[in-house]
Amino acid sequence: MEINKEFLVWRKSENTNSFGLFQVLLMAKDGETYISHASSFNVKPVGTIINGTPTKKDLTDKRISNHSFRGHELTERLYPDAPDDVIQEVWKLELQK
Question: What is this structure's pTM?
Fold first, then answer.
């Protein structure tokens, strides 16, 4: 069973919502994508890799279906997973650091 999974911060809002949270988009190398929110104390810059911790197991296909991210709130998984060409384009950001 997968313990942690790496996600790339590939988008971050320029401003905050009414609660002072930035919106971020996170993607794993397999295309699993989340939208999440973090305060200025916890938000990471675009191109940073953060670990996602499994929070729920999907019993229909025996794989991790949800992750949580330390210091993040209002995390939501986006379906379907990103296609291969999008994954490659997004993960180029990590190489540009």
Answer: 0.84
